[in-house]
Amino acid sequence: MNYRDAGLSDGEYLKIKELLGREPNELETALIGVMWSEHCSYKSTRRLLAKFPQTGKYLVQGPGENAGVVDCHGGWGLAFKVESHNHPSAVAPYQGAATGVGGIIRDILAMGARPAASMDGLFFGMPGQGKSDVLAEGIVEGIAGYGNAVGVPTIGGKTFYDPCFEGNPLVNAFSCGLVRLDKIVSSKTARAGDLAVLLGSKTGRDGIAGASFASKELDEGNRESRGHIQIGDPFEEKLLIECCLDLRDNGLILSMQDMGAAGILSSSSEIAHKSGTGIEIFRERIPLREKMAPWEIFLSESQERMLLIVSTDKYDAVKAMAEHYALECAIVGNITGDGRYRIIEDGACIADLPVGILGDAPAADWPSAVPADLDDRREFGGDMKSADPKADLLKLIGSAHGSCRHEIWVQYDCQVQLRTAAEPGEPVSALRMPESDGIIAFAMEAEPWKCRTDPKVGAMETMAHSVRLLALAGADALGMTNCLNFPSPENPENYYELTQCVEGLAAVCRDLECPVVSGNVSLYNETPRGGIYPTPLVVTAGLVPHYAYFVSGGHAHDGDDIYLVGPSAGSLGSSRWQMLCNGGSLKPRGVTWRFDAALERDFISKALFVSRKADIKKSARVVSGGGLAVALAKEAIYSGVGMDIDLADKNPLEVLFSEGGPRAVYIIPPAASEKFLACWKGYPVTRLGRVGGDSLVVRGFLEIHRDELAGAFFGGVK
Questions:
Q1: What element of type H or E holds 425?
Q2: Active site includes 39?
């Protein structure tokens, strides 16, 4: 294997020779090549990610471990993270998605946490396109097949459709777990003299060099890429979870690392690098399913494996525990104190590298250039009119983006473990806390259209929206994890968009005091037909102190008052109305709402205050995709009532269909309206009308029977 086959550039290979003072052998070249890949090293984004705020009042463990951890009170921590499995899912949708779920669950397990819930951000080409439908079907089946069998509930997610994802779907897998704060496991605590123990499945050829595969664009045929796809076994993973948690509870492990990207190589070198030690691995001790070359063994991403660091006096107990769970267990190496990474085969050293060369790939500095058509993307104005507002609203709630996702959710087991407090389809997902009355809430958000027209503003709206959703639900934000999905950073315009999105996310996190606790970067999301839109996905976690404070929608009753809190209008730019109804535009146009930190903080504090008022019965919904019109339509559908809305002299198009900004609909009994208004004193509040009748009526603009709304929503384009 020459250095180009290993994915190294001429300059990188010269740097390697300089660092080593010699030529690396073929095995060493393969090892460095995969660890210097984009997927493992984050060489294009490491400096950008340093912009994220990484401190916060609830933060226990930030970036640098397998997952972040925040304090949920009562001695409990929440471990959570999101990762991509985009390229594998494009090539083998079922296994690609299934092993994405399995891999992120093991990241949570590696923190010593019991995996408690999963979510998935799915981005597909348009429905009705043959290849897109096949990919979407296989991906959803893979998520369900693995998640249901492993016993971790899938409690929510996000689904988004656009032609830019044709042939390059995104699968962003999120998982979280609960751990006692005094039981957290680290990957940084190995000591010289400890044993490196491989627990779980035998190593095979599936998934060889998957990290390198994920660090380049997809080719048209993808045939040779199928060898890079891992094969999952959720039943083996279930055993692995229970075994690792038993080992933790019995104090038998010192450190633990998931074998994800780059398999044994990354897990062993990362533990040594983080711990400031060295490690030697004995090739012949690694349990194999078939005869394999050394480079194949170390780069294999076979699933359901963990690397444990165990003191010599505890190994017999570890082995006995593994046998109890019918899992393979073998001592494959030793922790040393010399800072070297060595592979030994039959007594001979076949690779000898400084640990640092594997853990510290040189950063890539790509040129940045403002996209030539960015001003054109931002332009959206003129005489905006709706020829048929009723048809527009029905189109919005019956579209692929607006209609009910029940055909996806019904495949997922969302109630296993019996902690789910909000099932899929709610604006936020939620779990009940153990040993308390609290609820943990999650908001998963991504806005590719808005990030396309202005990357920084779009990313800011994405992050702000996730915090709004939590605040309205009654949750104080604890922290955020993200997955940055972008095309090749080697294109200066793409790198500009990436940089701007990171800066936008970071600015909002700082202003709203929400630290970034973990994350993932997925680049080279493109095919010969083109790249995806910039798609930063965020999952923000929050804590509702008591289940009685949890606020949701769909509880309106005849006679209730309807209020809009926040500015009367957001922006029609890059909105669903602009994309779907304004002449059937094929491209997003116009800048979305521009973030206002003071207004956002005011909304958050007042929404949290209202949530604590048990004497104010309420049904509420943040204004999201499709605008106020869609929020009102969903309230009418889920409550089974009509609404009479009077916008007076306001522009109905902008009020009803604009998006963005800290805005929400509250539906309050008249007897509690005075108390409600007092809670929002000093913040914009508009009384829109009253609940009643069988239709959603906006006087002088549209009237739709709620059965017609429900028919479009539940029977729309899938």
A1: none
A2: yes
